């Protein structure tokens, strides 16, 4: 896996349900290194701290490999890296191969794979179509948030060095499907209940399906 682009956003005001909302989803390439802090990316807009930023969502990665799929669905948009709201556009990122809890050395940072992105209305506003939320879920390749274990700078061209492979974990693809499936795979839930790469609140919520 290799970083293709580093992307950050300035605050952008959108209108949703007749209310103004400030968002950081409108990311564009920086053409320079960015600093991954333990709760966010330095210089990047994170307005909604309830759903973005923090220990388990310090930075968002999306695969360059899926750009062609989305470009074909939305050919009339003005495309550039960062279009899916990611801080890091990564070639070779395969949600069926990375596991929740995997630890990588990336540039000057040490990072851990945490949770997939769950799309919200802001993505629909950006793409001009709220149907993209269902399309995003059905496609099943959501990218991933990371935890930054050691803060540091990263840049385009930096590659991922696997430091520690998570044991008894789920792939990002499996976990994403678990979140949205009506019939929950109980073995998958049991597999991640003690995985501290996921926030306890999310694990506790899934634990309810075992009752």
Give the helices and strands as they follow along the chain: EEEEEEHEEEHHEEEHHH
Low-confidence stretches: none
User: How many beta-strand elements?
Assistant: 12
Number of helices: 6
Helix content range: 10-25%
Tell me the strand percentage band.
Answer: 25-35%
Question: Mind summarizing the main beta sheet?
Answer: 8 strands, mixed
Structural class: alpha+beta
Rg for CA atoms: 16 Å
- The main sheet orders its strands as 4-1-7-6-10-9-8-12
Tertiary shape: globular
What's the mean pLDDT score?
93
The end-to-end distance, rounded to whole angstroms, is: 39 Å
Q: Could you characterize what this model shows?
A:
There is one protein chain. This protein has 6 helices and 12 strands. The chain is an alpha+beta fold. The strands form 3 sheets. It has an 8-stranded mixed β-sheet, with no helix packed on it. A two-stranded antiparallel sheet has the order 2-3. The termini are far apart. The relative contact order is 0.19. The model has no long low-confidence stretch (mean pLDDT 93).
